[in-house]
Give the backbone structure.
Amino acid sequence: MVDGEAPVKKNSDLPVRVVSAIVMLAIAGTALWLGGWWWRGFAILVGALCLAEFVRLVLRATEQPLNRIAGTVFGTAYVAIAVISLASLPLGVVLGIVAIVVATDTGAYFSGRAIGGPKIAPKISPSKTWAGLGGGMLAAGIVSAGTFAWNTGELVMRPMLFIAFAIGAMLAVVAQTGDFFESWLKRSAGMKDSSQLIPGHGGVFDRVDGLLPVAIIGALLWGMHP
């Protein structure tokens, strides 16, 4: 690649990415606001699109029939459990989960670019660093603790506040694991994106790779809530 070409491409893609992001947020936000079957239907639709992309990656990644069957079965269970989790959790918990995933991505992006340093798994995802993971954990922990303080109406240094921070940091690791899993699957399939469904953003799976495992773990944690 000739020096200077990459920035031009990024700049030309930026308006498309911004418009796509606004549309996605508007649709998802409306579904959440309406709640009920509107939200459940939206979650099922996103899950169906994600599963179709997952299966496509599996079929591209291997030609072995047993591997294809195993991958499809796993993908179906993985996506279905995540969709059921998102569709059944209270609105406030869903918003908290989404906020933690967004904070993870944002914190990882800026800390990774600012600090750099050793890569976590360069053969799977060359851009992800340990510094980025640390920044994502910090950002997710702050959002989780802030959400807890907002819900309780008290910003007091007490054990539960630190527990909320720790849960957010842990979920950041879960989100990054989901991201790595999809990156590994895409590399195995020889594909850059899971699809081209969303202009400037790739596929649905590309957008929810970190959200899927966080939704599952979040539902388990919520189920343990007294």
Summary: The helical segments are 5-34, 36-61, 65-88, 91-115, 130-152, 159-189, 204-208, 211-224.
